[in-house]
Amino acid sequence: MKIKQVILIGLLLPASLVFAYLNGRDGGSQPIAYNHNMHVQENDMECLDCHVYAEDGARASIPNVELCRDCHEEASTESEAEAALLSYVNDNRRIPWRQINVVPDYAYFSHRRHVKLGELDCVACHGEVGEMVKPVSEPFQEVTMDWCMDCHEARNVSNDCYACHR
Ligand code: HEC
Ligand code: HEC
Ligand code: HEC
Ligand code: HEC
Ligand code: HEC
Q1: Ligand 1: does its nearest atom lie under 6 Å from the Cβ of 62?
Q2: Which parts of the chain sit beneath pLDDT 50?
Q3: Which residue among 38, 46, 111, 129 is best mutated to probe the pocket of ligand 3, counting the most ligand atoms within 8 A of its Cβ?
Q4: Quick one: which atom of ligand 2 is closest to the CA of 63?
Q5: What is the C-alpha separation between 136 and 50, in angstroms, rounded?
Q6: Distant-in-sequence, close-in-space partners of 137: CB < 8 Å, separation ≥ 6
Q7: Which residues of 92-104 are buried (b: 16+ CB within 10 A; e: fewer)?
Q8: Which of 28, 85, 113, 163 has its CA 20 to 30 A from that of 76?
Q9: CB 158 within 8 Å of CB 99
Q10: CA 87, CA 84: separation in Å to the nearest integer?
Q11: Rounded Cα–Cα distance for residues 76 and 72 (Å)
Q12: pLDDT at position 29, please?
């Protein structure tokens, strides 16, 4: 190993440990300790105010600084999480949210189909997210083919392979 590599590892390893520690401490698996309950229950926001494509798009979308900025331009609380948010907002940096519920590219899933046409509530698939005080860290239901097919069977929806694998 060359000396430069040794130095690099020496620098990166402690940094990654500090990062892991800070991450575990406030945001869990997410960069900011976002609190759904505070927005949805205490401040009457609707799911679609933030996940703006959840009814008409394939992907619901996770909001970022453009939207948060509407209400968080300056501190309104003493919260560490809000301070972290403000540094993203003021530097105009993307918040690197990690997507928790994921369908692989080789299968097709559309929110519109389920929310608008199927008239399913978010809760049916995601649980009571609006009451969560910590970020979503795991799917409410593991996203597997069996999960999709069980609900389709129960509701008489097609389980033809080509419906989902186009
Ligand atoms: C039939 C089950 C189902 C329903 C109903 C549903 N979702 Fe989802 N949701 C999923 C699945 C599956 C994924 C992963 C999709 C992917 O990777 O494309 C997902 C992903 C998401 C994501 C993250 C990624 C993204 O941009 O799509 C958000 C946010 C989300 N859903 C919010 C909502 C909201 C808000 C509602 C209600 C308006 C809702 N969902 C209704 C199953 C559902
Ligand atoms: C429509 C206004 C509105 C929008 C948009 C909004 N928030 Fe908030 N947020 C609030 C209110 C109200 C509070 C409660 C703080 C208070 O009492 O002043 C709050 C509090 C917070 C806090 C501090 C409380 C805590 O849990 O520690 C964080 C962090 C936060 N919001 C994150 C976000 C993020 C991230 C976004 C963008 C995805 C966002 N907010 C978008 C209104 C909003
Ligand atoms: C003020 C904006 C805001 C509102 C209102 C809001 N969310 Fe979210 N939502 C977020 C943010 C920010 C994240 C990413 C952080 C996290 O996971 O908590 C998120 C994450 C999610 C996820 C996880 C997505 C994934 O797979 O990574 C789901 C599911 C979700 N929200 C559903 C809902 C539902 C259902 C409602 C209404 C009851 C709702 N949200 C209301 C901002 C919001
Ligand atoms: C909670 C129940 C439920 C779950 C879970 C669910 N679906 Fe569905 N799905 C429905 C319903 C209801 C419809 C019919 C909507 C309508 O009326 O058009 C549907 C329709 C569809 C269609 C259109 C079918 C066609 O005839 O062309 C596809 C594709 C689809 N779902 C994919 C998925 C995938 C992929 C998953 C898992 C990641 C999934 N669904 C999970 C309830 C569900
Ligand atoms: C309702 C939607 C849906 C239907 C219908 C469906 N699939 Fe899938 N399939 C998925 C999803 C979502 C995944 C990815 C999640 C997972 O790996 O469980 C998947 C994954 C797969 C995989 C990768 C599997 C693995 O386990 O790694 C294969 C192969 C597959 N499907 C074949 C089929 C065949 C063959 C049919 C018809 C008998 C079928 N699928 C019908 C949604 C569907």
Answers
A1: yes
A2: 1-27
A3: 129
A4: 38
A5: 15
A6: 28, 29, 30, 100
A7: eeebebeebeebe
A8: 28
A9: no
A10: 5
A11: 8
A12: 84
